[in-house]
Design a protein that fits this description.
2 copies of one chain form a homodimer. By secondary structure, chain A is α/β, with parallel strands linked by helices. Chain A folds into 3 domains: about 280 residues, Ribonuclease Z/Hydroxyacylglutathione hydrolase-like (Metallo-beta-lactamase, Chain A), CATH 3.60.15; about 150 residues, Metallo-hydrolase/oxidoreductase (Rossmann fold), CATH 3.40.50; about 90 residues, Ubiquitin-like (UB roll). In chain A, the strands form 5 sheets. An 8-stranded mixed sheet of chain A has the order 7-6-5-3-2-1-20-21. Chain A has a 6-stranded mixed sheet with strand order 8-9-10-11-12-19. A 6-stranded parallel sheet of chain A has the order 15-14-16-13-17-18, sandwiched between helices. In chain A, strand 22 and strand 23 form a beta hairpin. In chain A, helix 4 crosses helix 8 and helix 6 runs parallel beside helix 7. Chain A is globular and about 90 Å long. The termini of chain A are far apart. The interface between A and B is large, with 63 and 63 residues. Chains A, B: Keywords: Calcium, Cytoplasm, Endonuclease, Exonuclease, Hydrolase, Metal-binding, Nuclease, RNA-binding, rRNA processing, Zinc. Chains A, B: It is an enzyme of class 3 (hydrolase). Chains A, B: One of its GO terms (molecular function) is RNA binding. Chains A, B: This is Ribonuclease J.
Chain lengths: ~550, ~550
């Protein structure tokens, strides 16, 4: 099962820099001698434990350290967890490295790069069946199906052995654009010999076969047909096949289509220009043109399927949208599933809509959404087609990677040949034999305003503390001559007790007592101890009276 | 369908004070002439929009204002969303009002009240079939089934008409304790005439019939049988029927049972003392007695099914538990479903367990949990049995209440007789005829440390702002004589840029420039304007350099 053209003195290093600790920031470096290619450069959205963080990137120090080897960046598809780190990475690489991807993916990336003022990126359009040589890498792309058109997997041939990286995929036999997964190519790779398979684990705990995207269309059509008023459909704006089905259903019901939401407007424009979304110009209306159109002749295609408070759907539901507002009698279809962590936000939007008197469809009521990721039977089929000697589950949380590893064993890959590793760990392949390699610098990099990278974990802990308990500032004037504390000034935010004259008097008294008792050294060398004593005395005073411990910011000034 | 013993000059007011804006803080006042009874007194747990809040209570001002009428408090069952406001309410009522509930519910309440040092509450134990007269209310209790034993519904007869309040229920034909829902009583009420039905809406969007609790037992037994090492089962500690089935399964597998987690220890003790949980003393071990017991002879029953970071399960998974730690080869069963908002926390625990090499069972893998609430077919059966003239869906979010209202219409209740109302709205019944009444004071009351009630919405907004952007304090000494600002002192928390000498120098310069330009009035009456100018100058300086807007706390002191 090993490859033909291997040389025993060459090692291929496979280094996942992201994507193995959750769904997000996918990035894998493949390094062989003096050549390196990168597969994907994605971001992750911050969660509740990362308050105030804008974006999370993989730490790609290793890529920058080996910049001289980097021959190209392959992007498997246009989702942000595969593309979102690209603007940052390209800036660090001075935009020198070519990017290989499908036409639609490059179209989406182009828009994003222009927001970062990155001009003339070195785009290299490829498609399923394309071959590219990058240093000692011979790369063949293959078509897959996913919740975005133009999704590709890669077959990497190197002197040390071969790798199939699936990208994100499902095996949809009836994709909307007719571009089926390339089973022939996968079978061919299997025959040629796949040393290592890296495969999408997102749905590895889900039994069965993921339903085809084509099954969503009839449900949406049915809902639109039954609607008496306007229909609002919220969906991911990159899910062009979904949008196509919404447009087709609207057309069948003689309804015009209004598009709203920034990314929905951008992505539908790009997809139409590139020929991925087919909708008649005459069937589209601008949001400000709808006056006079009967309510049962409209479908509004919008962002907001994740309950984002600033999205078009939330704003229309709350009466905060410029041109449209949702009202009683409207039908709303949430054509998506909440990303983990967004459940409550989505439910809040659904409740607002229910209160308005809308008829709301979500996944629990009708088949208005299907997953874009392969379930267990598809994952097994991928293993059966490629027949890998070694297997590394990728793209998932710990529980997904392990469930996928178990499937690998079921499919005959020996347990010792299955690698469930962490970001920054590496595999080394030599003569088609794969072993664990050394780890490289890895981790997460936070984007927080203009700052990229050095957000201290303490900052995040402080933010969580501030959120749960608020803060009180105390300014103490140290009278160094008389060796006592003068007037104290208090100021608080996010605390539920009032900081009024009574508080100031009582807290001052408590602090003065503590300072008198402590016999402090009133000199410049003693101010740290005094500052600490002020903080502790105030914290205890507040605890005794309110049973809360806000963050105390003591400022001591010498006079 | 109206009642027999009605007098046309009497009005029954039905006033839900909580429970209609989500799952939580259930409380309804029934007021008839000079008599009032309260059904349930629950709390709600805070969500992401209420950072730092400990608990949320319904605003029960109306109850206190009518304290002289209050004849009794009925608690339908022992879940905190039905009992948790009771300690606060009883304190406000000086513990004078009798509490009617089942033995187990009173047992759970007693423990909670003793934590609040509320002694000798006026407990009145009732059960299905009990009759109680409270002023002009003639009340009959009926047994239901729910995810806790001893759940009751109530049939309230008044001179103005009759009401059935279901409490939380499902229609479990094979409950673990053999106490089936009292269909006979419900049919009898239906025959006597139910003017108003108030029914649990939690699962009103779920088609079909909720599975019986008895179906969970075999799945848990199967998982324990197949386990090679220890088995940890996390569940709600009040779910005594679930715990019974876990204990029975452990017994069948010749495994001893260890109980851990504070509420799990308390509730199993109470339930055993009161005869609700039947487990042989010899089969129970203390956590510190397990040395020497083979791993395949142990089942640990623990809290933590919601991913709570301080729960037994999380601590055992993280190696922070006093006596137990989970390791490779252990089996963990999450015998619960995440409460909305807890999905991500639960998933994080599942991932930690997967990383340890545990075999994790959750609802998606096996039938290790079923809901305690009625699905659509059961809700329809409740409507069919009670045949109400009027219907008010209760206990649910907006989307649930509306879905339940739609079921009511399907079952023949005219749309105009169905009331989907808000907390604090009221219904008025006279001669069995129900109309909308006037609204009363209502809303939410926050418990934040020792403070109850007056947490300002601004406090919560400030906490969210602090969490997302952090804060910077600036202390400015105003030299009133020279009419200028002296040294500035900066201090920050939760900001990702360093507050170092460079920052202090540059920010000071920016502030000084703004003050010089502003030509401020350096007198006591001018300090507010100077404070604002300092804040704005610092905020702009930080925005220009970092593109973030932390909260600025300016303190100006005159010297």
């Amino acid at each position: 099962m090993a490859t033909n053209n291997k040389k025993s003195n060459v090692t291929l290093k496979v280094i996942p820099l992201g994507g193995l600790d959750g769904i997000g920031k996918n990035m894998t470096a493949f390094e062989c001698g003096d050549d390196m290619v990168l597969v994907d450069a994605g971001l992750m959205f911050p969660d509740d434990n990362q308050p105030g963080i804008d974006l999370v990137l993989p730490d790609y120090t290793y890529v920058l350290e080996n910049e001289h080897k980097l021959r190209g960046i392959i992007i498997t598809h246009g989702h942000e967890d595969h593309t979102g780190a690209l603007p940052y990475l390209l800036q660090d690489l001075n935009n020198k490295v070519p990017i290989f991807s499908s036409k639609l993916t490059l179209g989406f990336i182009e828009g994003k790069l222009s927001e970062f003022r990155i001009r003339a990126p070195k785009f290299r359009e490829v498609k399923g069946g394309s071959h590219v040589n990058l240093g000692c890498f011979s790369i063949e792309f293959f078509s897959t199906t996913h919740s975005i058109p133009g999704a590709l997997g890669v077959f990497l041939k190197t002197p040390a052995g071969t790798v199939v990286h699936t990208g994100d995929f499902k095996l949809d036999q009836t994709p909307i654009d007719g571009v089926t997964p390339d089973y022939g190519a996968l079978a061919k790779f299997g025959k040629q010999g796949v040393d290592l398979l890296m495969s999408d684990s997102t749905n590895a705990t889900v039994p069965g076969f993921t339903k085809s995207e084509a099954e969503v269309g009839p449900s949406i059509l049915h809902a639109i047909k039954n609607a008496k008023g306007r229909v609002f459909v919220a969906s991911f704006s990159s899910h062009i096949h979904r949008l196509q089905q919404i447009c087709d259903a609207a057309k069948k019901c003689n309804r015009k289509i209004v598009v709203t939401g920034r990314s929905m407007l951008t992505n539908t424009r790009v997809a139409r220009e590139l020929g991925y979304l087919k909708v008649d110009e005459n069937d589209l209306l601008d949001a400000f043109e709808i006056n006079g159109i009967p309510e049962d002749k409209l479908v509004v295609m919008c962002t907001g399927s994740q309950g984002e408070p600033l999205s078009a759907l939330s704003r229309m539901a709350n009466g905060e949208h410029k041109t449209l507002s949702i009202h009683e009698g409207d039908t709303v279809i949430i054509s998506a599933t909440p990303v983990p962590g967004n459940e409550k936000a989505v439910q809040q939007v659904v409740n607002s809509l229910a209160k308005l008197g809308c008829d709301v469809y979500d996944k629990s009521r009708a088949l208005v959404h299907v997953s874009g990721h392969a379930s267990q039977e598809e994952l097994k089929l991928m293993l059966a087609l490629t027949k890998p000697s070694y297997f590394m589950p990728v793209h998932g949380e710990a529980v997904h990677l392990r469930a996928h590893a178990a499937l690998g064993q079921k499919m005959g890959v020996p347990a010792k040949n299955i690698f469930v590793i962490d970001n920054g760990d590496s595999l080394e392949m030599r003569d088609g034999i794969v072993k664990r390699g050394r780890s490289v610098e890895s981790g997460v990099v936070y984007v927080d305003g203009l700052r990229i990278g050095d957000t201290d974990p303490i900052v995040l802990r402080d933010r969580q503390k501030l959120a749960s308990d608020g803060m009180v500032t105390v300014v103490a004037m140290l009278d160094m001559k008389r060796k006592k504390i003068g007037d104290l000034e208090f100021s608080g935010r996010g605390v539920s007790f009032p900081i009024d004259d009574q508080f100031s008097a009582d807290a001052s008294a408590a602090i003065q007592r503590a300072i008198e008792k402590g016999k402090f050294n009133f000199s410049s060398s003693g101010t740290d101890a005094i500052r600490k004593a002020v903080r502790d005395a105030l914290s205890n005073y507040i605890w005794n009276n309110n049973r809360t411990r806000p963050m105390i910011i003591p400022v001591v000034m010498e006079v």
